[in-house]
Structures are given as C-alpha cells and as structure tokens.
Task: structure prediction
Amino acid sequence: MTDRDTRRRFLTTSGGLVTLGLAGCLGDGGSDGADADGDDGMDGNETDDGMNEGDEMDGGDEMDDGDEMDGDDEMTESATVRVRIENVASAEFYPADTSTDGAVWVTPGAYAVHEGGNPIYELGEPASVGLEALAEAGPPTGFEGEDGLVDELGASTDVHDSGPYTPADTVADPNDPTGEVPGAPPIAPGGAFEFEATVAPGQRLSFASMFVPSNDVFVSTGEDGAALWPEEGDPVDGDVTDAVSLFDAGTEPNAEPPGTGPDQAPAQDAPDQGDDEGGTVRRLSDVDDGHEYPAAEDVVQVTVTPT
Result:
C-alpha cells in the first residue's frame, strides 16, 4: 500500500464524517490563491465598512451628545492574517516498517483567535470530547454523533474567530506520490496548511492537529496561544513556532512505540479503539512513556503574515 493510500485510509477509518466534513481539495498543489475554502467571510470586514457622513444624524439638525454614533463611536480595528502550518518533520524519523513508513504526519485541525488563555485545553484537566477525537483519530469535526473541537471553539464566548483547516487548505505536499494535493489525508513532511483569520489588537492564535503516528498526541500552541497583534503595535508578521508544543491528551495509554501499535492511527481499524486512560492533558515532555518523539519545532513551522 502506498503512503498516499495509507493516508487516505487513515482518515476514512477515523470516521466517515471526516471525509464528509473535510471534503474538497485544491486542484493545484502550489496555489496560494484558493487555499481557505470556508474562510470566505473572513476578510477583515466585520467592522463597519465605513459610514457616510451624516448617516449617524438620523436627519436631525441637532444631535444629542452620545447619540450620533449609536454605539459605534469607536470602531473596532481589525486585520486579516494568513496562517501557514508546515510539516517540517523528517520523512525517516521512525523506522521504515512503522505504519507511516517512518514519517511524521500532521492532520487537519481547528484554530481559534481569542483573548486570554488557549481555549483548546487546560493543563491538568481532562480533554474535551472534541479534543479527544482529534488527538486519537484526527478529525477536528469530532466522532459521529458528538461535538467536535470546531463546534466547541465556535461556542466559546472567549473566541472571536474559529474554524477548521482542512485538506482544502493544503497548499503543498511534495511527498504525495502522484504529485497532487490528496483528497483528505494528513500532510506528510513538506506539506502545509494555509488559512486566513480575522484578528484585532490584543488577540492571540491557538490551534491543534493530531501528531501521527500516536495514540493521543497532538501539536498545539501553549497555554497562552501565539501573539497575533500586540495591544501596542502592528499585527505579527513572521515565525511564531516558539509558541508551539506537543501534548498528550491523556485519553488513551501510549502502550506501544509510535507507529507500531494496533490502536494507533493510522493502523487502528476504527476511531476510539484503544483503552481509556482517564488522564489529563499534559505536555508530552512531562509524560514518561519511554518512547521517542521529535521536538515540536521539528514537527511544524508556523508563520503568520498580514494580508
């Protein structure tokens, strides 16, 4: 079975909803112009596009103080940024006889623009239902019949912009044997996701993708997320990888080395197949399972660019 076929099978066996929820892909693996299907409305225009002089006066010759702007006397400043998550892992980090042929893969995931702490997890607390699904099997849309991480973030009052980044956002995958952007797999080393998000001063970015192969390891920003726009200054333009770490969801034991266990994606026959661990979310560096993992900066590179 080819690497491409295995990655397609991975998303299929991780639940049919993944194929349905994440269907679609770019026709050109090198295109940057149509890489964010589903983010069409995120063009920074949720603030008032501009008020014609006099619109606030409601036809009157005199305005009572404070009434002329109808609450819009201070329009919220916003901008659109492009986020790129690239798989920079080695294609030979693990032995060739592992389930990924030695490579590290990164699944489609979910992102959030927020104030305060990372809304995806809380260290020392059990993972949410949506995070469990993503960390164990990959789908940001969740297991069938349950809310996914995308749903949870969308319902959070602390989140200002959120959504999935999907195979439609894949911009390159040089390790795909056909030379095409695949339909719905994780990205192999050299592949990347790109999506756009709307941000305002003081807001931060958090995201999560499954680390494959593993039982329940995921890559995410730290507890504070990654700065997108300081209160004083301009939107971030550059590398924010130093805000990223690897985490263990605490939902399934790391019983075997990565790429060798039957309960690990992509080798498992069904999602949620392994034993329940009943643990909490921890940094992977704090988990002593005796297995080998790369550093987070050797898995993904994350860059932010104002558009």
Q: What stands out?
A: The first strand starts at residue 79 and ends at 87.
